[in-house]
């Protein structure tokens, strides 16, 4: 039976990373994001077809995330060397080009497993997106089939709703009123 993650402390992680410009390797841990919001997203594999549409869209929106005191970290089961090669491959050749955030390598698949997105029999992750608050609590999780890309606009809508601190009805957008609890 699946364990609930939302409303609990996010599973801890430490993974090797490559910077968005493909120049440097490093490491990222959940503790590195303490005090900031984090959009942590999983994708199945480098050099695939739907993934670059999502990753580049999130990268193009990065300045908006920064304005909301939010960092972004992409994760797949590929190596940092594969990530680097994909970043350094031109967009017109199915590459990513430069990104505004790092990509992390979950070679052991342990992080994908901890976040409940690993397809064990295939050894790849589903498309999972998680919003973690500055205290490390997992506030939002969406997981979908690998055939369907996610929505940057919906990610912003949910992030702004979570940051608003109020009760937000369906389709709430920044500037809308909160519900009042009776």
Helical content class: 10-25%
Please state roughly what percent of the residues sit in beta strands, choosing from under 5%, 5-15%, 15-25%, 25-35%, 35-45% or over 45%: 15-25%
Structural class: alpha+beta
The major pleated sheet works out as: 7 strands, mixed
Measured between the Cα atoms of the first and last residue, the distance is: 35 Å
Could you state the order of secondary-structure elements as H and E?
A: EEEHHEHEHEEEEH
For the secondary structure, the number of strands is: 9
Protein name: Peroxiredoxin
Domain Thioredoxin: 4-164
Pfam families: AhpC-TSA
Family: Belongs to the peroxiredoxin family. AhpC/Prx1 subfamily.
Primary descriptors:
single chain, globular, seven-stranded mixed sheet, 182 residues, alpha+beta
Question: Can you describe what's shown?
Answer:
InterPro entries: AhpC/TSA, Peroxiredoxin, Peroxiredoxin_AhpC-typ, Thioredoxin-like_sf, Thioredoxin_domain. Keywords: Antioxidant, Disulfide bond, Oxidoreductase, Peroxidase, Redox-active center. Residues 4-164 form the Thioredoxin domain. By secondary structure, the protein is α+β, with helices and mostly antiparallel strands. The chain contains 5 helices and 9 strands; from the N terminus they run E-E-E-H-H-E-H-E-H-E-E-E-E-H. The protein has helices at residues 51-60, 62-67, 80-87, 110-114, 152-164; strands at 14-18, 25-29, 37-42, 70-76, 103-105, 118-119, 124-125, 127-132, 138-144. The protein has a 7-stranded mixed sheet with strand order 2-1-5-4-3-8-9. A two-stranded antiparallel sheet has the order 6-7. Strand 8 and strand 9 form a beta hairpin. The longest helix is centred in the last third of the chain and has 13 residues, at 152-164. The chain is globular, with a radius of gyration of 16 Å. The N and C termini lie far apart (35 Å). The mean pLDDT is 94.
């Amino acid at each position: 039976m699946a364990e609930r993650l939302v409303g609990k402390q996010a599973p801890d992680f430490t993974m090797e990373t490559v910077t968005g410009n493909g120049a440097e390797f490093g490491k990222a841990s959940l503790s590195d994001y303490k005090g900031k919001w984090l959009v942590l997203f999983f994708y199945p594999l480098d050099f695939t077809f739907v993934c670059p549409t999502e990753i580049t869209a999130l990268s193009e929106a990065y300045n908006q995330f920064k304005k909301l005191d939010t960092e972004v970290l992409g994760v797949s089961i590929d190596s940092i060397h594969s990530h680097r090669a994909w970043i350094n491959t031109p967009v017109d050749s199915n590459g990513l080009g430069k990104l505004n955030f790092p990509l992390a390598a979950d070679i052991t698949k342990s992080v994908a497993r901890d976040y409940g997105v690993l397809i064990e029999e295939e050894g790849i992750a589903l498309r999972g997106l998680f919003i973690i608050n500055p205290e490390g609590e997992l506030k939002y999780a969406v997981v979908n089939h690998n055939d369907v890309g996610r929505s940057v606009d919906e990610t912003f809508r949910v992030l702004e709703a979570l940051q608003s601190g109020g009760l937000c009805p369906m389709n709430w957008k920044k500037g809308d009123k909160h519900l009042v609890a009776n």
